[in-house]
């Protein structure tokens, strides 16, 4: 960061290393007191000192925000949080591999995984729950059952008295 801060080229660079240095330095930006790197997505992320890595990985993996996700998702959270360092993926892999909670839980097998069923979108009055209630004694006008229908979305209720609890009543 000395070049970005003071404009001085390091003494130990020449030839090919000098070309590579000037090509790489274009991806960095110095804003006192931090160094930022432009990623392949065009976003600038703060370059992190080694002393900060453990805490950042904790917040992006082990905290309640982190969620104990695997290497790539945790690394993506680090990048989304605006941080970068050269060994990001290697360090993230090592951190996840030594996470006590993750080691105890292990991988979720397909048998224990939540089913990935699509959520059905239904409109009002599309889906009804229908059932008979009864028999009631004494009968009222010859009716001893009540046919109850409830709309799943609006919870609208319809009820009619019926003499029997069979399909003929439902079809009426």
TrEMBL record:
Q: What is the lineage of its organism?
A: Eukaryota, Viridiplantae, Streptophyta, Embryophyta, Tracheophyta
- Domain of life, per UniProt, equals Eukaryota
User: Which molecular function term from Gene Ontology is one that the record holds?
Assistant: nucleic acid binding
A GO BP annotation? DNA integration
Q: Which residues form a coiled coil?
A: none
Q: Where is the Integrase catalytic domain?
A: 114-172
Annotated protein name in UniProt: Putative mitochondrial protein
Name the species this protein comes from: Noccaea caerulescens
Q: Which PANTHER family match?
A: ENDONUCLEASE-RELATED
């Amino acid at each position: 960061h000395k070049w970005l801060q003071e404009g001085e080229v390091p003494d130990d660079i020449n030839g090919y290393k000098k070309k590579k240095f000037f090509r790489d330095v274009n991806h960095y930006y110095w804003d006192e007191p931090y160094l930022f790197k432009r990623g392949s997505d065009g976003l600038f992320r703060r370059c992190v000192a080694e002393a900060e890595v453990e805490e950042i990985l904790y917040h992006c993996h082990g905290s309640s925000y982190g969620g104990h996700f695997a290497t790539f998702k945790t690394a993506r959270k680090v990048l989304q949080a605006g941080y970068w360092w050269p060994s990001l993926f290697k360090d993230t892999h090592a951190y996840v591999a030594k996470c006590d909670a993750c080691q105890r839980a292990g991988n979720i097998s397909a048998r224990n995984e939540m089913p990935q069923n699509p959520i059905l979108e239904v409109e009002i009055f599309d889906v009804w729950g229908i059932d008979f209630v009864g028999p009631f004694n004494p009968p009222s006008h010859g009716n001893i059952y009540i046919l109850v229908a409830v709309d799943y979305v609006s919870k609208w209720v319809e009820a009619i008295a019926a003499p029997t609890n069979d399909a003929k009543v439902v079809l009426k």
